[in-house]
Fold this sequence. Notes:
The complex is a heterodimer.
Chain A: H1 5-26, H2 34-42, H3 53-85, H4 97-116, H5 129-149, H6 157-182, H7 185-196, H8 208-223, H9 225-231, H10 234-240, H11 245-267, H12 273-285, H13 289-313, H14 322-348
Helix pairs in contact in A: 1-3, 1-13, 3-8, 3-11, 3-12, 3-13, 4-5, 4-6, 4-7, 4-11, 5-6, 5-11, 6-7, 8-11, 8-13, 12-13, 13-14
Chain B: E1 9-18, E2 21-31, E3 36-40, H1 47-54, E4 62-67, E5 70-71, H2 77-83, E6 84-87, H3 99-104, H4 119-131, H5 147-160, E7 165-169, H6 177-189, E8 193-197, H7 201-207, E9 210-215, E10 218-223, H8 225-228, H9 231-238, E11 241-246, E12 253-258, H10 265-268
Parallel strand pairs in B: 3-8, 3-9, 6-7, 7-8
Antiparallel strand pairs in B: 1-2, 1-4, 4-5, 9-10, 11-12
Helix pairs in contact in B: 4-5
Amino acid sequence: MSRPRTPTAVVLLSAALLASAVAGLALGPVRIAPGQVLDIVLGGPGARTGAFASIVWDVRMPRVLLGAVVGAGLAVAGTVLQALVRNQLADPFLLGASSGASLGAVLVIVLGAGAAGTAGALGGIGALSVPAAAFAGSMGALVAVYAMARRGGTMTTGRLILAGVAVQYVLSALTSLVLVLAAHPDQIRSVLFWTLGGLGGARWDELALPATALLVGTALLTALARPLDLLLAGEEGARTLGLDTGLFRAAVFVLTSLVIGVLVAYSGAIGFVGLMVPHAARMAVGAGHRALLPVAALGGAVFLTLADLLARTAAAPEEIPVGVVTALVGGPFFLWMLRRSTRVEGVAG
Amino acid sequence: MSGRRPVELAVEAVRYSVEGHTLLHGVDLAARPGETVGVVGPNGSGKTTLLRCVYGALRPTAGRVLLDGADAAGLGAKDRARRVAVVPQDAAGTFGLTVREVVAMGRSPHKRFWEQDGPDDVRRVAEALETVGAGDFADRPYDGLSGGERQRALVARALVQDPGLLALDEPTNHLDIRYQLEVLGLVRALPATALLVLHDLNLAASYCDRLYVLSGGRVAASGTPAQVLTEELLAEVYGVRTRVTTHPATAAPNIVYLPPGGHRAEGGGPGRAG
């Protein structure tokens, strides 16, 4: 049941997404007036008139689009993970899924590049093997964290976070090991990208897969809004309300890992988007997933578009990895949530 | 509001052990369609364990639970939820879902996963909210409610589930007396069969057709309240002294608790044997 606030939130966020996208296309080393950006965009990719058309279409647009897609997907994945573990401190990054995806991606790039003797550009190795490995890595990490955090049917916040951190450390260490042992020096820079998270590698011909993963994943998960809501009633509650929780949880873990894996393959591990955005979206439209997931997707798109704009421009001409920007905002937010949640848990026993 | 047929419940020699401890030692229990059956007994006697075996949260180590003669262990979660609704003691941490949204969850067993609530569901939810007196706080977050308000919301959720068997775990322990009477009256009036775990023996006596008294994971006595609630049995099972009379207004057994014997009476308070 969506609330009256939902349409308002969708309209406002769509407007914000449009505005932040225009800002993303306009700002950078070369500043282009917003009006001119709109002219160029509305003129279509074919009509390359004016000096700035190439900057807008070829350089900035794929990056803005990838940022929006990744932000939306991480927010959706975070929302769903939070329902799966029934804890609002869950996030693809904090639960190790992004690190798992990174390790998978790095392994394929390094080994694949080694075998083929190329420099390891994403598309060069068989377009699907990197996202597939990232999916496997994120799935493996999530299953490991879930299994460790859940003992005897209960899952405390502390155990969940610790399991996530531990898995994240192990996976990051393995990623570093692979890099040090196997990577060519010229690969290290491109692979470092996964550990920090960045959208600089965005290319038109690599947008289709992440966009498809986002749209299909969000559509399917929104269709599953009812059982996702039921998870909030707790394990036993959901079962007595008719949900086969084991089967459903497994299916949603796979689906979420797929979204995370595909996105991380293109953007690297960007943290905290999936933590903050779902929280804000819940405050706006409530916890029912039918309204929450689309609103979180829009919110995530806006957030990461703006974060990437900041990452590109704040220290220009140097570029800050966008994962650093989201961590600088998200870390304190996480601590604030942690304080709140331990207070609540303390009361509940 | 129920169009469903009341379920006949049979619990046959149900035993439940966990980590070497046996919590139920072969319990038999039966409830005829439409009957209101109470389960009473001291703390740790296995009441909640028995209830959880009945509604499928626990799988009995031995024995069977039959719903209309069919083994409940063979039912899928959804089939079971269409027949059995549960009012748990509490359910917390719903991320800010409203009371109305929590109550609407009760419609899920009758819906496809992707199906939205239709006008009929919305009407049933609104009716159930009014029935339990939760209309006023229907659009507030469930997490922010008092224990009693939550309990009424969970009763409403079970009502919209339209069950043939209602399993209630101390449905009145957070309620003030008016709502205790209302909720129990409501449960009795439903066409569904009801199995309730209750602490308050006087309420159990007035609202249940039959009672099972559990003690140490075994059935110590069963029968009508008048047959079961005797001074001897209460002394044996609960270790308390009582005076049981037939209440002139309700014709149900009426239990008055006496202070423990001797002059330790002042310090004792009502006896609560574990």
